[in-house]
Specification:
The complex is a heterodimer of chains A (564) and B (73). Chain A is 35% helix and 18% strand. Chain A has 564 residues and is α+β, with helices and mostly antiparallel strands. Chain B contains two helices and four strands; from the N terminus they run βαββαβ. In chain B, the strands form two sheets. In chain B, strands 1-4 form a two-stranded antiparallel sheet. In chain B, strands 2-3 form a two-stranded antiparallel ribbon. Classes of the chains: A alpha+beta (564), B alpha+beta (73). Chains A and B meet through helix 11 of A and helix 2 of B.
Chain lengths: 564, 73
Protein backbone atom coordinates (compact mmCIF):
# COMPACT_ATOMS: atom_id res chain seq x y z
CA UNK A 1 0.00 0.00 0.00
CA UNK A 2 1.29 3.47 -0.78
CA UNK A 3 2.15 5.86 2.02
CA UNK A 4 -0.45 8.36 0.82
CA UNK A 5 -3.21 5.85 1.48
CA UNK A 6 -1.97 5.02 4.99
CA UNK A 7 -1.21 8.54 6.15
CA UNK A 8 -3.24 11.74 6.15
CA UNK A 9 -0.11 13.65 5.34
CA UNK A 10 3.33 12.66 4.03
CA UNK A 11 6.16 15.16 4.32
CA UNK A 12 9.58 14.84 2.77
CA UNK A 13 12.32 16.87 4.37
CA UNK A 14 16.08 17.04 4.76
CA UNK A 15 15.95 17.31 8.53
CA UNK A 16 13.26 16.21 10.96
CA UNK A 17 13.60 17.69 14.44
CA UNK A 18 11.53 15.98 17.11
CA UNK A 19 10.97 18.45 19.93
CA UNK A 20 10.88 22.24 19.63
CA UNK A 21 12.51 23.24 22.89
CA UNK A 22 15.73 24.98 23.86
CA UNK A 23 17.65 22.64 21.57
CA UNK A 24 15.05 22.00 18.87
CA UNK A 25 14.47 25.64 17.94
CA UNK A 26 18.17 26.56 17.54
CA UNK A 27 19.03 23.40 15.57
CA UNK A 28 16.07 23.98 13.25
CA UNK A 29 16.91 27.62 12.65
CA UNK A 30 20.60 26.92 12.04
CA UNK A 31 19.96 24.01 9.69
CA UNK A 32 17.63 26.25 7.66
CA UNK A 33 20.37 28.88 7.44
CA UNK A 34 22.43 26.25 5.65
CA UNK A 35 19.68 25.84 3.07
CA UNK A 36 18.23 22.56 4.30
CA UNK A 37 14.51 21.91 4.48
CA UNK A 38 13.54 21.40 8.12
CA UNK A 39 10.39 19.98 9.69
CA UNK A 40 9.88 20.30 13.42
CA UNK A 41 7.51 17.97 15.25
CA UNK A 42 6.37 19.57 18.50
CA UNK A 43 3.71 18.15 20.79
CA UNK A 44 2.75 21.59 22.09
CA UNK A 45 3.67 24.83 20.37
CA UNK A 46 7.32 25.93 20.29
CA UNK A 47 6.43 29.41 21.59
CA UNK A 48 5.76 27.85 24.99
CA UNK A 49 7.07 24.33 25.12
CA UNK A 50 9.78 22.44 26.93
CA UNK A 51 11.77 23.39 29.98
CA UNK A 52 12.27 26.93 28.73
CA UNK A 53 8.56 27.46 28.21
CA UNK A 54 7.95 29.49 31.34
CA UNK A 55 11.30 31.22 31.06
CA UNK A 56 14.83 30.74 32.29
CA UNK A 57 16.82 32.88 34.70
CA UNK A 58 20.25 31.59 33.85
CA UNK A 59 22.27 30.27 30.97
CA UNK A 60 24.69 27.80 32.41
CA UNK A 61 27.50 27.96 29.94
CA UNK A 62 29.79 27.35 31.68
CA UNK A 63 32.00 30.09 30.35
CA UNK A 64 35.76 29.80 30.58
CA UNK A 65 36.96 33.01 32.18
CA UNK A 66 39.12 34.56 34.87
CA UNK A 67 41.91 32.05 34.65
CA UNK A 68 39.62 29.07 34.13
CA UNK A 69 40.37 27.37 30.84
CA UNK A 70 38.04 25.04 28.98
CA UNK A 71 40.02 22.11 30.31
CA UNK A 72 39.84 23.43 33.87
CA UNK A 73 36.07 23.57 33.62
CA UNK A 74 35.84 20.13 32.01
CA UNK A 75 37.97 18.65 34.79
CA UNK A 76 35.87 20.32 37.47
CA UNK A 77 32.73 18.99 35.79
CA UNK A 78 34.13 15.48 35.68
CA UNK A 79 35.13 15.62 39.35
CA UNK A 80 31.79 17.02 40.44
CA UNK A 81 29.85 14.28 38.70
CA UNK A 82 32.22 11.64 40.06
CA UNK A 83 31.74 13.00 43.57
CA UNK A 84 27.98 12.50 43.37
CA UNK A 85 28.49 9.03 41.92
CA UNK A 86 27.44 9.91 38.40
CA UNK A 87 30.23 9.35 35.89
CA UNK A 88 29.80 11.43 32.76
CA UNK A 89 29.29 8.95 29.93
CA UNK A 90 31.36 10.95 27.45
CA UNK A 91 33.58 13.76 28.66
CA UNK A 92 34.04 15.05 25.10
CA UNK A 93 30.43 16.22 25.01
CA UNK A 94 31.13 18.50 27.97
CA UNK A 95 34.28 19.69 26.27
CA UNK A 96 32.38 20.74 23.15
CA UNK A 97 29.69 22.53 25.13
CA UNK A 98 32.20 24.47 27.22
CA UNK A 99 34.60 25.18 24.36
CA UNK A 100 31.76 26.64 22.30
CA UNK A 101 29.98 28.53 25.08
CA UNK A 102 30.92 32.00 23.80
CA UNK A 103 30.17 31.09 20.20
CA UNK A 104 26.76 29.76 21.28
CA UNK A 105 26.11 32.98 23.17
CA UNK A 106 26.67 35.00 20.00
CA UNK A 107 24.50 32.64 17.97
CA UNK A 108 21.66 32.87 20.48
CA UNK A 109 21.82 36.66 20.15
CA UNK A 110 21.44 36.28 16.39
CA UNK A 111 18.33 34.18 17.00
CA UNK A 112 16.84 37.00 19.06
CA UNK A 113 17.52 35.66 22.54
CA UNK A 114 19.33 38.50 24.23
CA UNK A 115 22.14 37.26 26.43
CA UNK A 116 22.83 40.70 27.88
CA UNK A 117 21.80 42.15 31.22
CA UNK A 118 20.27 45.58 31.85
CA UNK A 119 23.55 47.41 31.25
CA UNK A 120 23.93 45.82 27.84
CA UNK A 121 26.74 43.55 28.99
CA UNK A 122 26.83 39.85 29.85
CA UNK A 123 26.22 39.28 33.56
CA UNK A 124 28.51 36.43 34.56
CA UNK A 125 27.96 34.86 37.93
CA UNK A 126 30.27 32.70 39.97
CA UNK A 127 29.10 29.54 41.62
CA UNK A 128 28.63 29.74 45.35
CA UNK A 129 29.98 26.27 45.92
CA UNK A 130 33.13 26.29 43.84
CA UNK A 131 31.51 24.00 41.30
CA UNK A 132 32.04 24.17 37.59
CA UNK A 133 29.14 26.41 36.75
CA UNK A 134 30.25 29.84 35.73
CA UNK A 135 27.06 30.93 34.13
CA UNK A 136 25.20 33.92 32.91
CA UNK A 137 22.13 35.61 34.27
CA UNK A 138 19.69 36.34 31.50
CA UNK A 139 16.28 37.90 30.92
CA UNK A 140 14.79 34.79 29.39
CA UNK A 141 11.12 34.94 30.34
CA UNK A 142 10.31 35.14 26.63
CA UNK A 143 13.20 33.12 25.26
CA UNK A 144 10.90 30.49 23.73
CA UNK A 145 8.66 32.92 21.81
CA UNK A 146 11.84 34.48 20.43
CA UNK A 147 13.48 31.20 19.44
CA UNK A 148 10.23 29.96 17.90
CA UNK A 149 9.94 33.20 15.91
CA UNK A 150 13.51 32.71 14.68
CA UNK A 151 12.61 29.21 13.44
CA UNK A 152 9.44 30.42 11.73
CA UNK A 153 11.18 33.39 10.14
CA UNK A 154 13.75 31.09 8.61
CA UNK A 155 11.05 28.89 7.13
CA UNK A 156 11.04 25.87 9.39
CA UNK A 157 7.92 23.78 8.77
CA UNK A 158 6.47 23.42 12.28
CA UNK A 159 4.04 20.61 12.99
CA UNK A 160 2.37 21.93 16.13
CA UNK A 161 0.41 19.76 18.54
CA UNK A 162 1.94 16.76 16.87
CA UNK A 163 3.33 14.00 19.03
CA UNK A 164 5.81 11.54 17.57
CA UNK A 165 4.81 7.88 17.63
CA UNK A 166 8.00 6.13 16.58
CA UNK A 167 11.05 6.43 14.39
CA UNK A 168 11.02 4.86 10.95
CA UNK A 169 13.98 2.68 10.15
CA UNK A 170 15.54 1.00 7.19
CA UNK A 171 18.10 -1.47 8.47
CA UNK A 172 20.35 0.50 10.82
CA UNK A 173 19.38 3.81 9.34
CA UNK A 174 16.67 6.12 10.67
CA UNK A 175 14.62 7.54 7.80
CA UNK A 176 12.04 9.68 9.59
CA UNK A 177 9.19 9.25 12.02
CA UNK A 178 5.44 9.03 12.34
CA UNK A 179 3.32 11.37 14.40
CA UNK A 180 -0.25 12.29 15.21
CA UNK A 181 -1.85 15.69 15.59
CA UNK A 182 -3.64 15.61 18.92
CA UNK A 183 -6.21 18.21 17.89
CA UNK A 184 -7.18 16.80 14.52
CA UNK A 185 -6.17 13.14 14.81
CA UNK A 186 -4.23 13.47 11.56
CA UNK A 187 -1.66 10.67 11.12
CA UNK A 188 1.53 12.13 9.66
CA UNK A 189 4.58 10.48 8.10
CA UNK A 190 7.79 12.45 7.83
CA UNK A 191 10.45 11.06 5.55
CA UNK A 192 13.79 12.59 6.46
CA UNK A 193 17.43 12.32 5.47
CA UNK A 194 18.39 13.13 9.03
CA UNK A 195 16.37 12.91 12.23
CA UNK A 196 17.26 14.85 15.37
CA UNK A 197 15.93 14.00 18.79
CA UNK A 198 15.54 16.92 21.14
CA UNK A 199 12.79 15.75 23.44
CA UNK A 200 14.56 16.44 26.71
CA UNK A 201 15.23 14.07 29.52
CA UNK A 202 13.23 11.34 31.19
CA UNK A 203 12.03 12.08 34.72
CA UNK A 204 8.31 11.53 34.65
CA UNK A 205 8.32 8.15 36.34
CA UNK A 206 8.70 9.92 39.68
CA UNK A 207 6.46 12.31 41.47
CA UNK A 208 7.93 15.74 41.03
CA UNK A 209 7.22 17.15 44.44
CA UNK A 210 4.35 15.92 46.52
CA UNK A 211 1.97 13.03 45.99
CA UNK A 212 -0.74 13.43 43.44
CA UNK A 213 -3.56 15.60 44.61
CA UNK A 214 -6.34 13.38 43.45
CA UNK A 215 -6.86 10.44 41.17
CA UNK A 216 -5.01 10.72 37.85
CA UNK A 217 -3.73 14.16 38.71
CA UNK A 218 -0.39 15.41 37.49
CA UNK A 219 1.82 17.40 39.79
CA UNK A 220 4.25 19.40 37.71
CA UNK A 221 3.69 22.94 38.77
CA UNK A 222 5.84 25.60 37.13
CA UNK A 223 7.61 23.68 34.42
CA UNK A 224 5.48 22.03 31.77
CA UNK A 225 8.31 20.18 30.04
CA UNK A 226 6.86 16.74 29.43
CA UNK A 227 10.08 14.91 30.44
CA UNK A 228 8.56 11.55 29.54
CA UNK A 229 11.55 10.40 27.51
CA UNK A 230 9.74 10.12 24.16
CA UNK A 231 12.96 10.44 22.19
CA UNK A 232 14.88 8.02 24.41
CA UNK A 233 12.22 5.33 24.12
CA UNK A 234 11.81 5.80 20.38
CA UNK A 235 15.56 5.65 19.81
CA UNK A 236 15.86 2.54 21.98
CA UNK A 237 13.12 0.77 20.04
CA UNK A 238 14.88 1.75 16.81
CA UNK A 239 18.14 0.18 18.02
CA UNK A 240 20.10 3.06 19.58
CA UNK A 241 21.96 2.66 22.84
CA UNK A 242 20.79 4.22 26.10
CA UNK A 243 23.38 5.09 28.71
CA UNK A 244 23.39 5.55 32.51
CA UNK A 245 19.70 4.92 33.06
CA UNK A 246 20.70 3.84 36.59
CA UNK A 247 21.73 7.38 37.37
CA UNK A 248 18.70 8.97 38.93
CA UNK A 249 19.07 11.54 41.65
CA UNK A 250 17.21 14.28 43.38
CA UNK A 251 17.08 17.75 42.10
CA UNK A 252 18.42 20.12 44.72
CA UNK A 253 15.35 22.24 44.74
CA UNK A 254 14.14 24.62 47.37
CA UNK A 255 10.66 24.64 48.62
CA UNK A 256 8.87 27.49 50.27
CA UNK A 257 7.47 25.72 53.27
CA UNK A 258 5.56 22.90 51.61
CA UNK A 259 5.99 22.60 47.89
CA UNK A 260 6.46 26.03 46.46
CA UNK A 261 9.63 25.31 44.62
CA UNK A 262 12.30 27.64 43.41
CA UNK A 263 14.87 26.58 40.86
CA UNK A 264 18.20 26.02 42.50
CA UNK A 265 19.96 28.16 39.93
CA UNK A 266 18.20 31.26 41.13
CA UNK A 267 20.02 31.19 44.39
CA UNK A 268 23.44 29.76 43.84
CA UNK A 269 24.14 31.61 40.65
CA UNK A 270 23.85 35.09 41.96
CA UNK A 271 26.71 36.54 43.92
CA UNK A 272 28.58 33.39 44.65
CA UNK A 273 27.47 33.63 48.27
CA UNK A 274 26.66 30.22 49.75
CA UNK A 275 23.32 29.88 51.43
CA UNK A 276 23.20 28.91 55.07
CA UNK A 277 21.68 25.54 55.83
CA UNK A 278 19.94 24.72 59.11
CA UNK A 279 18.25 21.80 60.81
CA UNK A 280 14.62 22.35 61.71
CA UNK A 281 15.62 23.53 65.19
CA UNK A 282 18.11 26.08 64.00
CA UNK A 283 21.46 24.29 64.10
CA UNK A 284 23.67 25.42 61.23
CA UNK A 285 24.98 22.54 59.11
CA UNK A 286 26.80 22.14 55.84
CA UNK A 287 24.66 21.15 52.85
CA UNK A 288 24.29 17.36 53.25
CA UNK A 289 24.61 14.66 50.64
CA UNK A 290 22.07 11.82 50.63
CA UNK A 291 23.87 9.64 53.17
CA UNK A 292 24.32 12.58 55.53
CA UNK A 293 20.67 13.58 55.10
CA UNK A 294 19.56 10.12 56.23
CA UNK A 295 21.82 10.45 59.30
CA UNK A 296 20.12 13.72 60.12
CA UNK A 297 16.74 12.10 59.65
CA UNK A 298 17.63 9.28 62.04
CA UNK A 299 18.54 11.91 64.63
CA UNK A 300 15.23 13.70 64.15
CA UNK A 301 16.89 16.80 62.70
CA UNK A 302 14.92 17.01 59.46
CA UNK A 303 13.47 18.77 57.55
CA UNK A 304 16.34 21.06 56.81
CA UNK A 305 16.04 24.64 55.66
CA UNK A 306 17.99 27.25 53.80
CA UNK A 307 18.15 30.79 54.92
CA UNK A 308 18.77 33.89 52.88
CA UNK A 309 18.66 36.22 55.83
CA UNK A 310 22.39 36.86 55.83
CA UNK A 311 22.29 38.05 52.24
CA UNK A 312 21.93 41.68 51.28
CA UNK A 313 18.63 43.29 50.39
CA UNK A 314 20.04 43.95 46.95
CA UNK A 315 20.61 40.22 46.56
CA UNK A 316 17.01 39.53 47.55
CA UNK A 317 15.77 41.91 44.91
CA UNK A 318 17.81 40.04 42.35
CA UNK A 319 16.32 36.75 43.49
CA UNK A 320 12.93 38.25 42.68
CA UNK A 321 14.16 39.27 39.25
CA UNK A 322 15.35 35.72 38.66
CA UNK A 323 12.02 34.28 39.68
CA UNK A 324 10.32 36.72 37.35
CA UNK A 325 12.42 35.37 34.51
CA UNK A 326 11.88 31.71 35.39
CA UNK A 327 8.75 30.25 37.02
CA UNK A 328 6.97 33.59 37.09
CA UNK A 329 3.90 31.89 38.53
CA UNK A 330 5.80 31.14 41.72
CA UNK A 331 5.63 34.85 42.62
CA UNK A 332 1.84 34.67 42.46
CA UNK A 333 1.82 31.51 44.47
CA UNK A 334 4.09 32.99 47.12
CA UNK A 335 1.86 36.03 47.31
CA UNK A 336 -1.31 33.93 47.55
CA UNK A 337 0.21 32.02 50.43
CA UNK A 338 1.63 34.99 52.27
CA UNK A 339 5.20 33.85 51.80
CA UNK A 340 7.78 36.44 52.76
CA UNK A 341 11.11 35.84 51.08
CA UNK A 342 13.01 37.78 53.69
CA UNK A 343 11.70 36.15 56.81
CA UNK A 344 10.36 32.74 55.86
CA UNK A 345 12.53 29.68 55.52
CA UNK A 346 13.06 27.65 52.39
CA UNK A 347 12.71 23.95 52.95
CA UNK A 348 15.18 21.78 51.11
CA UNK A 349 13.83 18.85 49.14
CA UNK A 350 14.68 15.67 51.02
CA UNK A 351 16.16 12.76 49.03
CA UNK A 352 12.95 10.80 48.72
CA UNK A 353 11.45 9.47 45.51
CA UNK A 354 10.16 12.83 44.38
CA UNK A 355 11.68 15.32 42.06
CA UNK A 356 14.17 12.71 40.90
CA UNK A 357 15.81 13.21 37.58
CA UNK A 358 18.20 11.57 35.16
CA UNK A 359 20.93 14.12 34.82
CA UNK A 360 23.42 12.18 32.71
CA UNK A 361 21.22 9.48 31.20
CA UNK A 362 20.21 9.49 27.59
CA UNK A 363 20.92 8.36 24.08
CA UNK A 364 24.54 7.53 23.44
CA UNK A 365 26.19 9.79 20.94
CA UNK A 366 29.56 11.30 20.21
CA UNK A 367 30.30 14.95 20.90
CA UNK A 368 28.95 15.83 17.45
CA UNK A 369 25.51 14.41 18.30
CA UNK A 370 25.87 11.32 16.11
CA UNK A 371 24.29 8.17 17.50
CA UNK A 372 25.11 4.59 16.59
CA UNK A 373 22.25 4.65 14.06
CA UNK A 374 22.89 6.30 10.72
CA UNK A 375 20.70 9.33 10.21
CA UNK A 376 19.88 9.73 13.90
CA UNK A 377 21.25 12.62 15.94
CA UNK A 378 20.53 13.76 19.45
CA UNK A 379 20.81 17.10 21.26
CA UNK A 380 20.32 18.59 24.71
CA UNK A 381 19.01 16.61 27.63
CA UNK A 382 18.21 13.64 25.39
CA UNK A 383 21.97 13.20 24.98
CA UNK A 384 23.72 11.09 27.55
CA UNK A 385 25.82 13.50 29.53
CA UNK A 386 24.61 16.94 28.81
CA UNK A 387 21.77 19.02 29.97
CA UNK A 388 20.10 22.24 30.86
CA UNK A 389 19.04 25.07 28.62
CA UNK A 390 22.59 26.08 27.77
CA UNK A 391 23.63 22.51 26.93
CA UNK A 392 20.55 22.09 24.77
CA UNK A 393 21.01 25.33 22.87
CA UNK A 394 24.76 24.81 22.40
CA UNK A 395 24.48 21.22 21.18
CA UNK A 396 21.56 22.29 18.98
CA UNK A 397 23.48 25.19 17.47
CA UNK A 398 26.56 23.04 16.88
CA UNK A 399 24.56 20.34 15.15
CA UNK A 400 22.54 22.86 13.14
CA UNK A 401 25.81 24.26 11.88
CA UNK A 402 27.23 20.92 10.79
CA UNK A 403 24.39 18.60 9.83
CA UNK A 404 24.49 19.63 6.18
CA UNK A 405 27.71 17.59 5.91
CA UNK A 406 25.81 14.43 6.86
CA UNK A 407 22.88 15.29 4.61
CA UNK A 408 25.04 15.61 1.55
CA UNK A 409 26.33 12.10 2.15
CA UNK A 410 22.90 10.61 2.83
CA UNK A 411 21.17 8.42 0.28
CA UNK A 412 17.49 8.86 -0.47
CA UNK A 413 15.61 7.49 2.55
CA UNK A 414 13.40 4.50 1.85
CA UNK A 415 10.34 3.94 4.03
CA UNK A 416 8.71 0.59 4.64
CA UNK A 417 4.89 1.02 4.37
CA UNK A 418 4.33 -2.01 6.64
CA UNK A 419 6.27 -0.30 9.42
CA UNK A 420 4.21 2.85 8.93
CA UNK A 421 0.99 0.84 9.04
CA UNK A 422 2.01 -0.93 12.26
CA UNK A 423 2.82 2.41 13.91
CA UNK A 424 -0.53 3.73 12.79
CA UNK A 425 -2.25 0.76 14.40
CA UNK A 426 -0.39 1.43 17.68
CA UNK A 427 -1.80 4.95 17.60
CA UNK A 428 -5.33 3.92 16.63
CA UNK A 429 -5.73 1.06 19.11
CA UNK A 430 -6.88 3.04 22.19
CA UNK A 431 -9.23 5.17 20.09
CA UNK A 432 -11.11 2.06 19.03
CA UNK A 433 -11.72 0.77 22.56
CA UNK A 434 -14.96 1.77 24.21
CA UNK A 435 -13.89 0.74 27.69
CA UNK A 436 -10.60 0.44 29.46
CA UNK A 437 -8.03 2.31 31.53
CA UNK A 438 -7.24 6.00 31.07
CA UNK A 439 -3.59 6.77 30.25
CA UNK A 440 -3.17 9.08 33.24
CA UNK A 441 -4.42 6.38 35.57
CA UNK A 442 -1.78 4.01 34.24
CA UNK A 443 0.89 6.67 34.52
CA UNK A 444 0.03 7.20 38.18
CA UNK A 445 0.40 3.45 38.76
CA UNK A 446 3.82 3.50 37.08
CA UNK A 447 4.94 6.45 39.18
CA UNK A 448 3.77 4.70 42.31
CA UNK A 449 5.74 1.54 41.42
CA UNK A 450 8.86 3.55 40.61
CA UNK A 451 8.64 5.70 43.73
CA UNK A 452 8.01 2.80 46.05
CA UNK A 453 10.36 0.20 44.59
CA UNK A 454 12.91 2.40 42.82
CA UNK A 455 13.54 5.87 44.13
CA UNK A 456 16.61 6.60 46.21
CA UNK A 457 17.30 3.61 48.46
CA UNK A 458 17.79 0.61 46.18
CA UNK A 459 17.86 -3.07 47.07
CA UNK A 460 17.46 -6.21 45.01
CA UNK A 461 14.17 -7.32 46.58
CA UNK A 462 12.53 -3.96 45.95
CA UNK A 463 13.88 -3.79 42.42
CA UNK A 464 12.63 -7.27 41.59
CA UNK A 465 9.16 -6.44 42.87
CA UNK A 466 9.19 -3.11 41.06
CA UNK A 467 10.16 -4.79 37.81
CA UNK A 468 7.45 -7.39 38.27
CA UNK A 469 4.85 -4.69 38.78
CA UNK A 470 6.04 -2.59 35.85
CA UNK A 471 6.09 -5.62 33.57
CA UNK A 472 2.53 -6.41 34.64
CA UNK A 473 1.37 -2.86 33.96
CA UNK A 474 3.02 -2.96 30.56
CA UNK A 475 1.66 -6.38 29.66
CA UNK A 476 -1.83 -6.17 31.14
CA UNK A 477 -2.83 -2.52 31.05
CA UNK A 478 -1.03 -0.85 28.16
CA UNK A 479 -3.06 -2.93 25.67
CA UNK A 480 -6.27 -1.97 27.48
CA UNK A 481 -5.91 1.79 27.39
CA UNK A 482 -8.79 3.75 26.02
CA UNK A 483 -8.95 7.36 24.88
CA UNK A 484 -12.04 9.38 24.10
CA UNK A 485 -10.51 11.62 21.46
CA UNK A 486 -7.16 12.42 19.83
CA UNK A 487 -6.23 14.85 22.62
CA UNK A 488 -5.69 11.93 24.95
CA UNK A 489 -3.34 10.21 22.51
CA UNK A 490 -0.56 12.38 23.89
CA UNK A 491 -0.96 10.75 27.32
CA UNK A 492 -1.23 7.31 25.77
CA UNK A 493 1.95 7.64 23.72
CA UNK A 494 3.75 9.20 26.68
CA UNK A 495 2.86 6.47 29.15
CA UNK A 496 3.91 3.84 26.63
CA UNK A 497 7.37 5.42 26.70
CA UNK A 498 7.37 6.03 30.45
CA UNK A 499 6.77 2.35 31.21
CA UNK A 500 9.42 1.20 28.79
CA UNK A 501 12.05 3.52 30.24
CA UNK A 502 11.05 2.79 33.85
CA UNK A 503 11.76 -0.87 33.27
CA UNK A 504 15.11 -0.05 31.69
CA UNK A 505 15.95 2.18 34.63
CA UNK A 506 15.27 -0.52 37.21
CA UNK A 507 17.22 -3.08 35.20
CA UNK A 508 20.17 -0.70 35.06
CA UNK A 509 19.99 -0.02 38.80
CA UNK A 510 19.96 -3.78 39.40
CA UNK A 511 23.17 -4.04 37.38
CA UNK A 512 25.09 -1.50 39.49
CA UNK A 513 25.85 -3.49 42.61
CA UNK A 514 27.51 -0.83 44.72
CA UNK A 515 26.95 2.43 46.58
CA UNK A 516 28.58 5.45 44.99
CA UNK A 517 27.89 9.07 45.91
CA UNK A 518 24.17 9.61 45.86
CA UNK A 519 23.56 6.22 44.22
CA UNK A 520 22.65 4.03 47.19
CA UNK A 521 22.25 0.24 47.14
CA UNK A 522 21.47 -0.73 50.72
CA UNK A 523 22.38 -4.33 49.88
CA UNK A 524 25.77 -3.23 48.51
CA UNK A 525 26.82 -0.42 50.85
CA UNK A 526 30.37 0.00 49.54
CA UNK A 527 31.88 1.43 46.40
CA UNK A 528 33.02 -1.25 43.98
CA UNK A 529 36.41 -0.21 42.57
CA UNK A 530 35.73 -2.37 39.52
CA UNK A 531 32.93 0.08 38.62
CA UNK A 532 35.19 3.15 38.66
CA UNK A 533 34.68 4.97 35.39
CA UNK A 534 32.09 2.44 34.26
CA UNK A 535 28.73 3.20 32.72
CA UNK A 536 25.75 0.97 32.09
CA UNK A 537 24.56 0.71 28.51
CA UNK A 538 21.32 -0.80 27.22
CA UNK A 539 20.17 -1.61 23.73
CA UNK A 540 18.03 -3.98 21.72
CA UNK A 541 19.87 -6.65 19.75
CA UNK A 542 17.62 -8.58 17.39
CA UNK A 543 14.69 -7.51 19.51
CA UNK A 544 16.22 -8.73 22.76
CA UNK A 545 17.32 -6.35 25.53
CA UNK A 546 21.07 -6.30 26.13
CA UNK A 547 22.69 -4.68 29.16
CA UNK A 548 26.44 -4.07 29.28
CA UNK A 549 28.94 -2.35 31.53
CA UNK A 550 31.25 -0.19 29.45
CA UNK A 551 34.01 2.33 30.02
CA UNK A 552 33.26 5.99 30.41
CA UNK A 553 34.71 7.79 27.41
CA UNK A 554 37.49 10.10 28.50
CA UNK A 555 38.77 13.24 26.87
CA UNK A 556 40.20 12.73 23.41
CA UNK A 557 43.94 13.45 23.17
CA UNK A 558 43.41 16.22 20.63
CA UNK A 559 41.22 18.12 23.11
CA UNK A 560 43.59 17.45 25.98
CA UNK A 561 46.47 18.87 23.98
CA UNK A 562 44.82 22.26 24.03
CA UNK A 563 46.34 22.73 27.49
CA UNK A 564 49.89 22.58 26.17
CA UNK B 1 -20.63 33.24 38.34
CA UNK B 2 -19.17 33.90 34.94
CA UNK B 3 -16.44 31.43 35.76
CA UNK B 4 -15.56 28.16 34.18
CA UNK B 5 -16.60 25.38 36.51
CA UNK B 6 -16.15 25.19 40.23
CA UNK B 7 -12.93 23.35 40.95
CA UNK B 8 -10.81 24.17 37.94
CA UNK B 9 -7.06 24.70 38.03
CA UNK B 10 -7.28 27.44 35.43
CA UNK B 11 -10.34 29.65 35.72
CA UNK B 12 -11.41 31.95 32.95
CA UNK B 13 -13.35 35.08 33.83
CA UNK B 14 -15.40 35.40 30.67
CA UNK B 15 -16.47 38.91 31.54
CA UNK B 16 -12.88 40.01 30.93
CA UNK B 17 -12.00 37.54 28.16
CA UNK B 18 -11.73 39.11 24.72
CA UNK B 19 -11.49 35.77 22.93
CA UNK B 20 -8.01 36.43 21.57
CA UNK B 21 -7.16 32.74 21.81
CA UNK B 22 -3.65 33.12 23.23
CA UNK B 23 -4.36 30.72 26.10
CA UNK B 24 -5.72 28.11 23.69
CA UNK B 25 -2.77 28.69 21.42
CA UNK B 26 -0.03 28.51 24.05
CA UNK B 27 -1.11 26.02 26.73
CA UNK B 28 1.65 23.36 26.58
CA UNK B 29 -0.66 20.66 27.88
CA UNK B 30 -3.53 21.39 25.51
CA UNK B 31 -5.73 21.82 28.57
CA UNK B 32 -7.68 24.62 26.94
CA UNK B 33 -9.94 23.87 23.99
CA UNK B 34 -11.94 26.23 21.79
CA UNK B 35 -15.70 26.48 22.08
CA UNK B 36 -16.71 27.07 18.47
CA UNK B 37 -20.30 28.03 19.38
CA UNK B 38 -19.29 30.74 21.83
CA UNK B 39 -16.04 31.54 20.03
CA UNK B 40 -14.35 31.45 23.42
CA UNK B 41 -11.77 29.29 25.18
CA UNK B 42 -12.91 26.51 27.46
CA UNK B 43 -10.95 24.58 30.10
CA UNK B 44 -11.56 21.15 28.63
CA UNK B 45 -8.95 18.91 30.27
CA UNK B 46 -8.63 20.41 33.72
CA UNK B 47 -7.22 17.22 35.24
CA UNK B 48 -4.13 17.56 33.06
CA UNK B 49 -3.22 21.10 34.14
CA UNK B 50 0.30 21.37 35.60
CA UNK B 51 -0.24 24.87 37.02
CA UNK B 52 2.62 26.22 34.94
CA UNK B 53 0.85 29.56 34.62
CA UNK B 54 1.50 30.15 30.93
CA UNK B 55 -2.16 30.98 30.21
CA UNK B 56 -2.07 33.36 33.16
CA UNK B 57 1.16 34.96 31.92
CA UNK B 58 0.00 35.31 28.36
CA UNK B 59 -3.56 36.54 28.90
CA UNK B 60 -3.60 40.22 27.87
CA UNK B 61 -6.77 40.86 29.86
CA UNK B 62 -5.80 39.09 33.08
CA UNK B 63 -8.98 37.09 32.62
CA UNK B 64 -7.37 33.87 33.85
CA UNK B 65 -6.62 32.88 37.38
CA UNK B 66 -4.76 29.80 38.55
CA UNK B 67 -6.31 28.04 41.50
CA UNK B 68 -4.09 25.67 43.44
CA UNK B 69 -5.27 22.31 44.68
CA UNK B 70 -5.37 21.64 48.40
CA UNK B 71 -2.12 19.68 48.48
CA UNK B 72 -0.19 22.76 47.42
CA UNK B 73 -0.83 24.27 50.83
Amino acid sequence: MSLDRIANKVIETDVLVIGGGMGGCPVSAKAREHGLTVTMMEKAKPERSGSGSVGLDHHGGPFPREGLTVLDLVERDVKMFERIGMPLPDVNIRYQVIANAFWAMEEMEKLGASMMWDDGKPNFVPSAYGGPRVGLRVHFQNVKPKLAAASRKRGVDILERTVAIDLLTNGERVVGATGVNIRTGQFIVVKARATIIGTGSFNRNYEPETPQTWVHKHRYNFCPASICGDGLAMAYRAGAELVSMDQVAGMPTFRHRDDLSEPFGNFVQNDGVPLKCYTWNGKEISFPNYARYYELEKKGLTPIYFSLEHLSEDYMKRVDVCTTEERFISLKMAEDRGFDRLTHRYESMPPHPMGLQHRVSGIRSDEFSKTSLKGLHVIGDSMAGDGGGSGASTTGLLLGDSIHDDISEADEPVIDPDQVESQKQIMLAPLSRQEGTMPLELECAVRYACGFYGGVLHAEGKLREGLRRLATLQREFLPKLTVKNPHYLIGYLEVRNIIELSILEMQAIMERKETRGNFIRTDYPNRDPAMDGKIICQSLLDGRPVIEVKDQIGLKPEYGEARK
Amino acid sequence: MGRQGNNMAAKIEFKNCNGCGLCYDRCPQDVIAWDEDKDMPVVAYEEECWHCGICWMECPKRAIDIVYPVSFW
